[in-house]
Specification:
By secondary structure, the protein is α+β, with helices and mostly antiparallel strands. The chain is about 15% helix and about 15% strand. It is built from one helix and two strands, in the order αββ. A two-stranded antiparallel ribbon has the order 1-2.
Length: about 55
Amino acid sequence: MARQLYDYWFVQFDFPDENGRPYKSSGGKMVWNEKLKREIPEKWTVNKIGGIIRCL
């Protein structure tokens, strides 16, 4: 189940948009990301996890 959810949200990009509809299949704008060599949602950025999480 967890793998299915991950695939649905982070590979197919069909997580709910601000209106509760699946993002990509409802026409959510996708843009090519050269680092990942794939399309990602328009306002997403690519960061290393170390830049997001701080070790205490």
